[in-house]
Amino acid sequence: MSILTILEFPDEQLRKKAAPVKNIDDNIKQLIDDMLETMYHAGGIGLAATQVNVHLQILVIDTSEQKNDPLCLLNPEIISKEGAFEYKEGCLSVPEIFEKIIRPSHITVKGLNRHGEAIEIEAIDLLSTCIQHEMDHLRGKLFVDYLSTLKRQRIKTKLEKMHRLEGKE
Ligand code: NI
Known about the structure:
The protein is α+β, with helices and mostly antiparallel strands. It contains 3 helices and 7 strands.
């Protein structure tokens, strides 16, 4: 397994739309393992393939306290949503920024697991938020897009400065 590089806002690659996975071959399984390792290594609770510059509909999540309950979802689709849940979200692609976002609190999502089997998940609160946040990545959307233009611009400036200091540009 290996740790993958996570793209950071405002990288334009984060705006790409991911294509559905058609065939779960060894490369895809390797990618899923690497994404999980990368997510755990970075201390995150979710990671979308878009964030590691692979534009396929794959996400990994682990919202458990012990970090021992990985969920992998391919080609996810929300089939129902209701309620409202507010959570101070962060993102591995937007480091050190946390902002309150309101999303539906109860969702039902369908997709495939890593074996290509159809699965349906009912998620509430944190897991619901996390799945929606990661699904946004797959369509090129970031949680900062829910904030005001001014706030998003401030975050962009802050991260660009940080990237310059880190020599990432
Ligand atoms: Ni994120």
